[in-house]
Amino acid sequence: MSDTTTHWLARYQPWRRTVEPGFWVLVLILQLLFNSVTTWIDLRTTPYWEPLLWEATSNLMVGLLIPVLIAFERRFPLRWDTLRGNLPWHLLGTVVFCALHLVGMMILRDWVYVALEQPYDRGPWLTVFSYEYLKDVRSYVLILAAVLSYRLLLLRLQGEARVLDAPDPPTGVPLDPSFTRGASVAPERSTRPERFLVRKLRKEFLIQATDIESLQAQGNYVGLRVNGHDYLLRSTLNDFLERLDPAKFARVHRSHAVNLDRIAEIEPTDGGDARLKMKDGSTVPCSRRYRDVLRAG
Predict the structure, then answer these.
(1) Which DSSP string do the residues of 118-173 spell out, in sequence order?
(2) Given CA atoms 80, 81, 84, 88 in this order, what sign does their dihedral have?
(3) C-beta of residue 265 within 8 angstroms of C-beta of residue 278
(4) For residue 80, what are the CA distances in angstroms to 77, 87, 197?
(5) What residues does the HTH LytTR-type domain cover (predicted)?
(6) pLDDT at 165
(7) Where do the domains of the chain lie, and which CATH numbers do they carry?
(8) Which of 21, 51, 69, 188 could form a disulfide with 36, with the two C-beta atoms 3.0–4.6 Å apart?
(9) pLDDT tens column, 72-115
């Protein structure tokens, strides 16, 4: 990855929590304006505040449902290896999405029309649901497509790591430890990864497990901090820590773990927590409940 891309990603990370919801707010506002004007022109005799209200209530409910939909996709991810099992859940999800969208916006419209003392005819529920469902399926798919495309772009720029497969045992060597004539064998150590293969921008390279500074839970991924760079590995933090050497790696927070050899300084904070300053200059939060782990280390 070029220095320009690395610099851009580093500068972008602090703004992600603002940019990501801001993108959806902008999209929904533009959709509100364009659709309300188009509807107003089509109806001609309807005052503009009515199509504006219709679109505002609809887009508000969609905006509230977007985080729910993103969380739902994380629970039932749409990948090639999970598509067959999770696609039925998403088909059901389109129905629930439409129902919540429809009920929410109708309640909001009822409140506004009652407050304005204006009549409001919502029409038969079954007819309205059929009409809205066709639009909501499109919205559902477009939202997921945007989220997955954005996630894939960041993944390609940031780099995705995977554990290398363990080497096959030599031919003729028994697999059962009982045949080793008194030699002590620790099968669990053979599953500890020593290296990771990282794919980034059509390039592949190896990183050493001992070079990992810290780890952070990021949804379905674990973020690996290695020599000043961040890579993602598809795993949960709990599962991945079980594969690392507990003498070197320890959990220090609900969402963070560190390489104990890479801690440069422990800075206590108010309330009993701490900040860990790593040798690469980064900082990692340490919860009070995990301070004993550092003392033991």
Answers:
(1) -------HHHHHHHHHHHHHHHHHHHHHHHHHHHHHHHHHH-EEEEPPPPPPPTT-
(2) negative
(3) no
(4) 9, 10, 21
(5) 196-297
(6) 53
(7) 3-158 (no CATH), 190-296 (2.40.50.1020)
(8) 51
(9) 998 888 877 778 889 999 999 999 999 999 999 999 999 999 99
According to the model, what pLDDT value does residue 227 have? 81
**Contact criterion met (CB below 8 Å) for 206 and 196:** yes
* Burial label, 190 (beta-carbon count in 10 A; 0-12, 13-18, 19+): exposed
CA 256 to chain centre: 16
Q: Are 191 and 172 in contact (CB under 8 A)?
A: no
Indicate if the alpha-carbon torsion angle 108, 112, 115, 120 is positive or negative: negative
Question: Between β-strands 229-234 and 160-163, what pairing exists: parallel, antiparallel or unpaired?
Answer: parallel
CB atoms within 10 A of CB 44: 6
CA 107 to chain centre: 31
- Please name which of 66, 71, 74, 72 lies closest in space to residue 21, comparing C-alpha atoms: 66
Angle at 144 between CA 140 and CA 149, to 5 degrees: 150
Cα gap 216→222, rounded to integer Å: 6
Counting as low any pLDDT under 50, the low residues of the chain are 1, 166-171, 173, 175-190
- C-alpha torsion sign, points 162, 280, 257, 153: negative
Q: Please, what is the Cα angle at 21 between 16 and 26, to 5 degrees?
A: 120
For the record, the structure tokens of 91 come out as: 């088909």
| Backbone phi and psi for residue 134, each to the nearest 5 degrees, phi listed first | -60, -40
Q: Facing residues of 88 across strands? A: none
pLDDT of 114: 92
251 torsion bin: left (phi>0), alpha (psi -120 to 50), beta (else)? beta
